[in-house]
Amino acid sequence: MTGPFPIPAALIERLRSAQRVAVLTGAGISAESGVPTFRDAQTGLWARYSPQELANAEAFRRNPRLVWEWYAWRQQIVRQAMPNPGHQALVIMEQRIATFTLITQNVDGLHRRAGSHQVLELHGNLFRSKCLAEDRPVEGDSEDNEVPPRCPRCGGLLRPDVVWFGEMLPAAVLHAAGQAATHAEVFFSIGTSAQVYPAADLPLQALAAGATVVEINPQPTPLSAVASFALHGAAGVVLPALIAQVWAEASPY
Ligand code: OAD
Predict the structure, then answer these.
(1) Ligand 1 atom at minimal distance to the Cα of residue 55
(2) Is 38 near ligand 1, meaning CB less than 6 Å away?
(3) Phi, psi dihedral angles at 124 (to 5 degrees)
(4) Mean pLDDT of 166-188
(5) Distance of CA 165 to CAs 52, 97, 125, 162, Å?
(6) Closest-lying ligand 1 atom to the alpha carbon of residue 38
(7) Would you please indicate which residues are annotated as catalytic (active-site) residues?
(8) Residue with CA closest to ligand 1 atom 6
(9) Is the CB of 235 inside a 6 Å radius of any atom of ligand 1?
């Protein structure tokens, strides 16, 4: 084994021959870009803010300005962030694997900014808005600097196009993610606490369908005990090491 993080030989072999790979990412993959996670003690967003006050439709109806400004603050953090070596390693993986699907719970758009193409956004996108009344995505807004802005079609309030607590995930995206999970030979769960369903069910679906399930996370999660491989390290370290050891010619070292 070479590289700064040793990858098990059996996993290297499995990946070299794999035709179908699916990856689920969570907030942890963007942590090294400076985007806060949700559940990490001290630094996680939910240690500092209450989901009840900010991330649900009722909260938005009660105080739309507060919720909109909180999302505008998160947009600002992401605008200043850059994709990190973990995101970049997944771009290389997409180029190496015949059928590759990247499923993300993140709303930060950093996978696409890194250059990934096959991205399924389970929880929406921070940089898209939708009309609260019509429940349809909206391009642009009424240009009178109101906060929140108004729908250019019906004049109703715009809200971030993200999935809030108590809301359904976009059905077509979730279906595609389930298909990718159940058809994958290798399934990665990276930088997610594996606590939020239905996303947390995807690695379990992959496992039940016979996939090799690989977790990458510095901390153990409920998935660790059942995963085929649990690689305890930061995504920005483990993923480039994995790429280097599986596809030596693409080595960033
Ligand atoms: P969490 O904040 O629950 O979990 C982040 C995970 O990333 C933790 O398990 C950390 O140990 C791990 N982590 C931290 N730094 C890491 C690094 N450098 N490399 C790899 N892993 C690292 O975030 P999610 O699991 O993404 O939903 O949370 C799932 C959903 O809960 C989010 O999409 C959001 C939230 O409520 C909605 O907003 C709908």
Answers:
(1) 38
(2) yes
(3) 90, -160
(4) 97
(5) 8, 34, 15, 10
(6) 2
(7) 123
(8) 192
(9) yes
For 85-118, write each residue's pLDDT tens digit. 999 999 999 999 999 999 999 999 999 999 999 9
**Which residue type, as a one-letter code, is found at position 159?**
R
The residue written with tokens 């019509």 in the block is 134
Q: Binning pLDDT at 50, 70 and 90, where does residue 1 land? A: very low
- 106: Cβ–Cβ under 8 A, 6 or more apart, which residues? 25, 26, 27, 29, 30, 121, 123
- The pLDDT of residue 252: 54
**In angstroms, rounded to a whole number, what is the distance separating the alpha carbons of residues 247 and 18?**
12
Q: What per-residue string of b and e applies to 134-158 under the rule 16 or more CB within 10 Å gives b?
A: eeeebeebeeeeeebbbbeeeeebb
pLDDT, mean of residues 215-226: 98
Per the document, the length of the chain is 253
- Contact (CB, 8 A) for 246 and 212: no
Residue 251: the pLDDT is: 56
Average pLDDT over residues 178-192: 98
Question: What is the rounded distance in angstroms from the CA atom of residue 54 to the CA atom of residue 34?
Answer: 21
Rounded Cα–Cα distance for residues 152 and 13 (Å): 54
Average pLDDT in the chain = 93
Q: What span, in angstroms and rounded, lies between the C-alpha atoms of 156 and 135?
A: 11
